[in-house]
């Protein structure tokens, strides 16, 4: 057995109650090099064991004052941690032998633990690790006397106080995330409950455990007094709303900011609430519900208030933050040049009023955003200079390597782009984007099997990564593996029913299966949603040619070529033009194709004929 049965009840140690127990059992026996390789994942899941897990990888933000750590982890952060931990467990058990893991009270687990258990089951062969939960796990071990999973309401308020006091003397972080807030809420002193929840909410927000923040924050807001402790109350509200927004629960988040506007007369609260409301409206997870015009009104309110702040440093930071937010709104309104002006204004504010070392993460965010806008405006060399500076300042932050790799790819520097993607793979817990991006470069270089391996790994890390499903479906179809392509299309359309890239791949599958009407419907559906999608025009053109409609094929190939000359498309249009009796135009296409691909034997043969 891997270790004694693990109790996953989140009221014990909050997020990763089970994960932390597994880490505690494995790390002392694991090779130090293996522990070091997965330091971020292990330290995140077992905060009380950080003394046994040396910190090898870190970003600049990790050791800044709390007020300067402005980045909020993306919702998929916990999936990255779970994937890294699964790889650690798999490598450790490959060296030490198969084990069984028994987990109790999964129904009471934090979503981080439920996600972790799902990843362990999905990514580790059951012959190496058998994960047993619920009815498959056998009888549960009795909880320790006084533990919240056992206590319920059987303890008196004074006994809850005593249990919390005892746990506080032990000083463990895990207890402060679960058991201590639980007992304090049921004790005799609401102020101590608020203090216990304050620590737990802040820790979970910093760790990216958004579900825990949403739950703990709601409990805290029921106890905090906005009149007696307005700063504490606002911090709870803002943290809770931030977590709700990250969880795609924008309406609940906005309701909290409306509550802040009703309860508070603080200019800082109103500015922050206005900014956050704007971001909810411009970033809504459902694109159809985004409202950049309303977002513009809210962010302008934030700017108006922040402009009046008397302290130059506070004004430079908060106003710069708001200007950067408005830049996003301007991009969504189709005004990237205005967005760049706003970001530049924020950069200049920071340089003038924040001092040489103040708010470094804020400065890097501004530079990275300025780079993205420079790319949009066709100024890639300026963008590259900014991204180089950002990475030099914070080489431990993986996402910047993705941005620079994407830019290098656009600049035709494929080897340098791959180097950045591979650095991103090593710099933090595993995530699918660098593999997905490297797959595109491998595919363009003709390494279709290498591209397929990268897409396979991206989807092993995140089976719901729709873009990877679409690309793998298209690649499998091109390789003649239509069964696999159809499976990916069906999986992707179940998540995103109108995805044009998936519909395009479906058209390829249906055409290969001899179902031209279904193929045409799939291509038409793709083009309804993405009228400039060259692959859909090309697929529909090939279908038209194969079904005896050369004129329709010429029209569709012509639309596909609007995205740029491609020798394969020019060759295909030439064949359709020839079939339509337009030999001179066909020869022109073949000559242009030969200029682009001088070694293409098919083009040479058709020109010679």
In short:
The chain is mainly alpha-helical and 609 residues long.
The 3D shape can be described as: globular
Largest sheet: 3 strands, parallel
- What is the arithmetic mean of pLDDT? 94
Low-pLDDT residue spans = 135-151
Radius of gyration, taken over Cα atoms and rounded to an integer in Å: 28 Å
Query: Based on helices, strands and strand pairing, what is the structural class?
Result: mainly alpha
Give the amount of beta strand, in percent: under 5%
Spatial strand arrangement across the major sheet: 1-2-3
Distance between the termini: 72 Å
Number of helical regions = 33
Helix content: 55-70%
DSSP E strands, number: 3
Detail the topology: elements first, then pairings.
Elements: E1 6-7, H1 10-13, H2 17-26, H3 32-37, H4 39-45, H5 77-96, E2 99-104, H6 111-123, E3 129-133, H7 148-151, H8 157-170, H9 173-177, H10 179-185, H11 190-207, H12 210-221, H13 230-246, H14 250-263, H15 267-283, H16 292-307, H17 312-332, H18 336-353, H19 360-376, H20 380-393, H21 398-410, H22 414-427, H23 433-444, H24 448-461, H25 466-478, H26 482-495, H27 500-512, H28 516-529, H29 534-546, H30 550-560, H31 567-579, H32 583-596, H33 601-608
Parallel strand pairs: 1-2, 2-3
Structure notes:
- By secondary structure, the protein is mostly helical.
- 69% of the residues lie in helices and 2% in strands.
- The protein is built from 33 helices and three strands.
- The protein has helices at residues 10-13, 17-26, 32-37, 39-45, 77-96, 111-123, 148-151, 157-170, 173-177, 179-185, 190-207, 210-221, 230-246, 250-263, 267-283, 292-307, 312-332, 336-353, 360-376, 380-393, 398-410, 414-427, 433-444, 448-461, 466-478, 482-495, 500-512, 516-529, 534-546, 550-560, 567-579, 583-596, 601-608; strands spanning 6-7, 99-104, 129-133.
- The chain has a three-stranded parallel beta sheet with strand order 1-2-3, with helices on one face.
- Strand 2, helix 6 and strand 3 (129-133) form a beta-alpha-beta unit.
- Helix 13 (230-246) runs parallel beside helix 15 (267-283) and helix 25 (466-478) runs parallel beside helix 27.
- The relative contact order is 0.05.
- Mean pLDDT is 94; it is low at 135-151.
């Amino acid at each position: 057995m891997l270790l004694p049965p693990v109790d996953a009840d989140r009221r014990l140690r909050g997020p990763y109650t089970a994960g932390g127990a597994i880490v505690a059992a494995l790390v002392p026996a694991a090779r130090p090099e293996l522990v070091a390789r997965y330091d971020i994942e292990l330290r995140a899941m077992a905060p009380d064991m950080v003394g046994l897990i040396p910190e090898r990888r870190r970003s600049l933000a990790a050791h800044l004052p709390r007020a300067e750590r402005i980045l909020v982890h993306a919702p998929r952060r916990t999936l990255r941690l779970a994937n890294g931990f699964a790889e650690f467990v798999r490598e450790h058990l490959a060296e030490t032998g198969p084990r069984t893991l028994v987990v109790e009270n999964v129904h009471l687990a934090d979503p981080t633990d439920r996600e972790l258990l799902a990843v362990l089951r999905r990514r580790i062969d059951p012959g190496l690790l058998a994960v047993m939960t619920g009815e498959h796990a056998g009888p549960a071990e009795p909880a320790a006397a006084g533990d919240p999973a056992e206590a319920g309401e059987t303890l008196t308020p004074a006994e809850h106080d005593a249990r919390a006091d005892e746990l506080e003397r032990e000083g463990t972080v895990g207890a402060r995330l679960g058991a201590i807030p639980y007992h304090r809420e049921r004790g005799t002193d609401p102020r101590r409950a608020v203090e216990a929840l304050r620590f737990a909410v802040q820790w979970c927000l910093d760790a990216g455990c958004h579900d825990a923040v949403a739950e703990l924050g709601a409990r805290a807001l029921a106890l905090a007094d906005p009149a007696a402790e307005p700063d504490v109350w606002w911090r709870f509200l803002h943290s809770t709303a931030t977590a709700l927004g990250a969880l795609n629960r924008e309406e609940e988040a906005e309701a909290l900011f409306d509550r802040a506007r009703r309860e508070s007369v603080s200019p800082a609260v109103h500015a922050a609430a206005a900014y956050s409301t704007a971001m909810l409206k411009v970033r809504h997870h459902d694109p159809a519900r985004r409202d950049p015009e309303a977002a513009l009104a809210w962010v302008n309110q934030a700017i108006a208030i922040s402009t009046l702040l008397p302290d130059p440093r506070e004004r430079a930071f908060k106003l710069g933050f708001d200007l950067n937010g408005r830049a996003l709104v301007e991009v969504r309104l189709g005004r990237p040049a205005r967005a760049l002006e706003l970001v530049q204004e924020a950069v200049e504010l920071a340089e003038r009023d924040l001092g040489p070392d103040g708010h470094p993460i804020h400065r890097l965010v501004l530079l990275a955003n300025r780079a993205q806008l420079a790319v949009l405006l066709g100024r890639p060399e300026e963008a590259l200079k900014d991204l180089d500076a950002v990475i030099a300042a914070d080489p431990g932050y993986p996402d910047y390597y993705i941005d620079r790799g994407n830019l290098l790819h656009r600049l035709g520097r494929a080897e340098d782009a791959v180097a950045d993607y591979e650095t991103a793979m090593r710099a933090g817990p595993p995530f699918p984007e660098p593999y997905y991006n490297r797959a595109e470069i491998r595919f363009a270089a003709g390494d279709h099997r290498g591209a397929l391996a990268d897409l396979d790994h991206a989807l092993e890390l995140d089976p719901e990564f729709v873009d990877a499903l679409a690309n793998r479906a298209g690649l499998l179809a091109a390789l003649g593996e239509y069964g696999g392509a159809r499976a990916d299309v069906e999986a992707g359309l179940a998540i995103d029913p109108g995805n044009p890239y998936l519909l395009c791949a479906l058209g390829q599958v249906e055409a290969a299966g001899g179902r031209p009407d279904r193929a045409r419907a799939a291509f038409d559906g793709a083009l309804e949603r993405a009228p400039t999608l060259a692959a859909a025009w090309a697929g529909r053109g090939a279908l038209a040619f194969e079904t005896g409609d050369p004129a329709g094929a010429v029209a569709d190939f012509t639309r596909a070529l609007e995205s740029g000359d491609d020798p394969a498309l020019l060759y295909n249009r030439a064949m359709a033009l020839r079939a339509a009796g337009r030999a001179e135009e066909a020869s022109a296409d073949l000559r242009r194709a030969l200029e682009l691909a001088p070694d293409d034997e098919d083009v040479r043969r058709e020109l010679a004929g």
